[in-house]
Amino acid sequence: MLIVMQQGVSEEDIARVIARIQAMGLIAHPIPGSSRTAIGITGNKGPLSPAEFEILPGVKTAIPVTQPFILVSREARREDTQITIAGRKIGAGHLAIIAGPCAVESVEQTLAVAHAVKSAGAHFLRGGAFKPRTSPYSFQGLEKEGLKILARAREETGLPIITEALDTESIEMVAEFADVIQIGARNMQNFPLLKKAGRCRRPVLLKRGMSATIEELLMSAEYIASEGNGGIFLCERGIRSFSTHTRNTLDLSAVPAVKAASHLPIIVDPSHGTGMRSMVAPLARAAVAVGADGLMIEVHDNPERALSDGPQALLPAQFEALMKDIRAIAEIVGLEV
Ligand code: PEP
Ligand code: MN
Fold first, then answer.
1. Structure pTM?
2. Which residues line ligand 1 (CB under 6 A)?
C-alpha cells in the first residue's frame, strides 16, 4: 500500500499517518518528493483497506500497489531519484562515468589506470578486490590489500571508489573502504547480501543478473530499500541469449523499461555487456543516447596482461576518445557530464 499525501501537507499530518501505520504493527517508509510525499507500507500479511488511511487528515489517496515492489516504484515517487556521492550527482539529468580496471591487480596498475581515467574525465574509479570468477583457479582478487590500494588511488586522484562486495562476511569491510558498494550480476538474488547492503550506510550499485527480468531486478532493489537504504542505482550489464557474437546481449531497452517502472537511476556497462573491446564504445554511445544515467567502463593500461577481462578493456587513449563522444551526445540529450 502506498499513501499519497496532499501537496503542502504539514509535518504533523505525516507523523500521524506514520504513527497509525506503526500502531498496526507495520513499517512506514516516508518517500519525500518535490511535489508530494508518499508513505510506503510494508510488513502486512494480507491486503490493507485504503479507507482506513484516507480518513486521516492530509491524506490524498491510498493506493494498493499493483507491482510486487513498492518503495522503488514510479508510483512511490514520480520524479527521478538523484543520488549524490562525494559531491557527484547521479540521475535526474546527471550522467556518471565510472571507469577503471576489472580487478585491482597491483598498486602500479591501479594508480596508472586511476590517473588515466581521471584525466580523461571519469567521475568514479571502479575495480574489484573480491572477484566473482567462473573458475576457482582464476585470479580471485587481492581482497583487503586490494581495498587498501583503491583507497590510495582515491587519495591520489580524488575519485570516489566503487567496488564489489561478494558475500555477507566481507561486505562490512568493503563498506569501510568503498564510496559505493557494488553487488554483481551473480549476486543479484543473494537475498541475505541484499538485506545487509540495505543496512550499510553506503550507496549501492546493483547489477542486473544475467538471466533476470526487469521485475526481478527491481524486486532485488526493493530488498535494499526495504532495509532503509534508498541510495540505489541499477546497472544493465547484458543478459544471456542464444547469440554468440558477444559475451552477453546488452539489453538497452532495460533503460526505458526501468525508467517507466521505477524512479531509480540506471547505468549501463557495455564492457561486460559485450565482452569485446571493439564494441564497447559504440554501445556506450548508444546507452547515453537511450537515456542511461551513467556508464561503467573497464579500462586497463596493459590489457594483454590483465588478470581478468582483458579482451573487453579499453586502452586509456580509447577511453579518452570515448569521453569526447559521450560529452557531445550528452549535450544533445540534455545531460550534464
Ligand atoms: C564487475 O563489474 O566487476 C563484474 C564482475 O560484473 P558482473 O557482475 O556484471 O559480471
Ligand atoms: Mn570485469
1. 0.96
2. 102, 128, 132, 164, 184-186, 207, 237, 272
